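It would be a great kindness if you could assist me with a short task in structural biology. The matter concerns a single protein, recorded as an amino acid sequence and a row of backbone structure tokens. Could you please explain, in whatever detail you think fit, how the structure tokens follow from the sequence? Thank you for your consideration; the sequence and its tokens are set out here:
___
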Amino acid sequence: MDKEQYEILFNLEERHWWYLGMREIAASLLAKYLDGRKPLRILDAGCGTGGTTKYLNRFGRSFGIDMAPEALAGSQQRHLTTLARASIEQLPFASGSFDLVVSFDVLYHQAVGNDAAALAEFYRVLRPDGLLMVRVPAYDWLRGVHDVVVHTRHRYSRGELGKKLAATGFLPRKLTYINSLLFPVAALKRLTEGTRGTLRMDLELPSPLINRLLLAALQLESGVLRAVSFPWGLSVLAVATKAVSNQQSAVSRR
């Protein structure tokens, strides 16, 4: 992301329908798959300006890492203190340090040279049977101006992300597209504009009425996703467990 975009991001995170809705989707699925486990040690791998890291504190204690000093400065303004400047390909934590790792819209980035290495690091720092939640943008054919601004390396399909998780050793629990109700309109916009036009983020705050309506669409998805998975959408969301052998499980219970 261009440096000047971090201030925009910081100002939007607590008000914009997309951020608010994505947090509700994440919280709904975390509540289902965590099954009431609290308090947790949580890693927000690629914390940005800290809005989600702060939100995750309701599940336990959150730690945030990011490579961008501008992002960490925003997180500090939210009075977050458990922060570190680090790459998701080399996490500065001991193996088995966390109950939950989340990484939202980070794996896709040009700064991540090897997404398999990053997934292996998520696996390493999770405790046995720990939970991973990953969100990435969907479909490489949907590249647009927004992708230029946020330095997109790759957009994923659901099947591709699932295979990468399984190859790392994770047991996928949920693989779904999200932001699906708005997909037709958003896809048409992306395909029409291509990578031309003014280089700016898609995330501009709409009028209060439109903001509420768009948030309502994601809130509806957050409830439905607990029971079903969507076959298309603008993002891919995965929930996976760190799979361990029976021998490892026996050792961890001693």
User: Anything to note?
Assistant: The first strand starts at residue 40 and ends at 45. Confidence is low (pLDDT under 50) at residues 246-254.
